[in-house]
Amino acid sequence: MAAKTFQLKNPAARSALIAAAVVTVIAVFFCARWFFANTIATRSVYKEIAEISVLLGPSDPQTHFAHAVLLEKTFFPEDLPRSLSEFERAVALSPADFNLWLELGRARARSGDDAGAETALRRAQELAPNYARVAWALGNFLLRQEKNSEAFGLIRRASDADPQYSNPAITNAWQVFDGDYARIRELAGESRNLRASLAAYLARQKRFEEAVEVWNSLPESDRQNDLKANGDEIYREMLAAKRFRDAVGMSNRRFTTGTLFNGDFEIPFTLQSPTVFEWQIADGAEPQIAVDSSQKHDGNLSLILVFNSSDGTGFRGVTQTVATEPGRGYVLRGFYRSDAKAATTLKWTVSNAANGAPIAETAQIDARAEWKEFSVAFKAPADTDAVVISLKRGNCASSICPIIGKIWFDGLQVAEASKRNDSK
User: What is the pLDDT of residues 144-186, one digit of tens each?
Assistant: First the structure.
C-alpha cells in the first residue's frame, strides 16, 4: 500500500500539530517516568533505590510509602524521623487511602505521638469501617491507652470478621488484665471466636474447669464444626495433663466415663491415629488382627487374632483407655473363643493410666474354648481418673512359647461393680 502524505499549508494548523506532538511526547515521558518510579518502589528492597523512585515520582504516594517502610527497617535513629515524614507525605498525596492512614497511625504510635496515632487510626476506620485489620489496629491501640470498653468492642468486631485475630486478642487481654478470668470473660462478650480462643487459652494455662465452662457456653453446632480446631486443642491439653474425664467431656458424647468404647467391635476401627479412648493396635505383623463375621458371641462382628509364631517372639498389643471415677469399683468382662495349638499365655490387664502401675488382670486365656466368659473386678485408682485396658502376653515357663491358631473376643465391657450386667 502506498504511503499517503498530507500537506498543511495553513501555518496555524501546522503549529497546532507540532504543539500536540510535543504535548504527547511530554505526557508519554512523565507517564513512563511515573510508571517506572512506581514499579521500582513496589519492588525495591534497598532504601537507596526507594530514594531514586521518590525523585522520579515525587507525586506518587506509593514511592513515598515504600521509602518510608524501608527507612523504618534500617533501625538507624536518623532514619526514623525521615520514615515518619515519608508516611505523612504519602497520606497527603492520597488522603482517601485507608491503608496509608493505617500505616501512618502505627508509625506515629511507634514515634510516641499517641494523639496523632489515634487521629490517623480513627481516620482509617472512617474510610474502612468494615475492615477487620483496621478495627484490630485501632482496638489494640485503644487497649494500650486503657480505653478498654471501646477497645474490646473493636477487637470483638475484628475477631468476628476474621478468626485469626482471636488468639492474639485473648493473649493481649490476659496480659493487660493479669489473668483476671471474670474480666476477660466479660470483655469477650458473645463473640464465639473470642470465647473459643479463651477456652483454648485457659486449657493451655491448665485452668480446665474454666476452659470447660467457656467451651460449653458455645452452641454445640459451632463446637462440632467451625470451632472444632479449638476443641481439638483443648482435648489435647487435657490428655497431656491426664485429665481424662474432662477429655471425655470434650468428645461430644462419643465416649463416656466408666464405659469401654466399641467393646462389641461393631464400629470400624480407626487405623490412622486413633484417640486413646478407642482401640489402639500396636504396629507389627504378629498376630494378624481384624474383625470377623464368621464367629461372634453376639451382634455381627468379633475381634479375631491369628497367631503363627513358632517361637512366640513379637506380640502387638491391643489397648484402650477408659475414663473412671477415682476410687470407684468396676468390673471388666467379656467373652472369648479359642482354637490354638499351645498354651496362649494371653490375658487382659487393667493398669493405672497415670503411671502404668498394674491394678488387676484376668486368668489366662484357654488354648481351646467355645465362647467362654472372663471377668475381673478392680477399683479405680484414687490418684487419676482413667485406667488402661490391655491384651498382653503373660510370662512363659520356657524360652520358646509358640502360639499357633485363632482367638476371638466379643462383648467386652467395663461397668460399675454395682451395675454389672449379668444378662448375657
Answer: 888 888 998 999 999 999 999 999 999 988 988 888 999 899 8
* C-alpha torsion 391→393→395→396, nearest 10: 150
Contacts of 155 (CB under 8 A, 6+ apart): 135, 136, 139, 140, 143, 165, 169, 194
CA–CA distance, 126 with 128 (Å, rounded to integer):
6
Residue 304 to residue 300: CA distance in whole angstroms: 13
Nearest 5°: phi and psi at 43?
-110, -5
Write the pLDDT tens digit of every residue in 339-376: 987 666 789 999 999 999 999 999 998 888 999 999 99
DSSP string computed for 299-348 = SS-EEEEEEEESS------EEEEEE--TT-EEEEEEEEEEEESS---EEE
Closest CA relative to residue 152, chosen from 166, 160, 164, 140: 140
pTM of the model as a whole: 0.71
Cβ-contact 367, 338 below 8 angstroms: yes
What is the model's pLDDT at position 403?
A: 80
Cα→Cα distances 363→265, 344, 352, 391, 394, Å: 22, 11, 19, 12, 10
What gap in Å lies between CA 272 and CA 213, rounded to an integer?
Answer: 31
Q: Read out DSSP for 92-139?
A: HH-TT-HHHHHHHHHHHHHHT-HHHHHHHHHHHHHH-TT-HHHHHHHH
3-state secondary structure of 205: coil
The single residue listed with the C-alpha cell 512363659 is: 396
The alpha carbon of residue 15 and the mean position of all alpha carbons in its chain are separated, in whole angstroms, by: 72
Pick the closest to residue 141 from 121, 169, 112, 171 (CA basis): 121
Distance from C-alpha of 204 to C-alpha of 121, rounded to nearest angstrom: 33
- Amino acid (one-letter) located at 2: A
Most confident option among 16-20, 119-123, 271-275, 344-348: 119-123
Cell of 200: 483454648
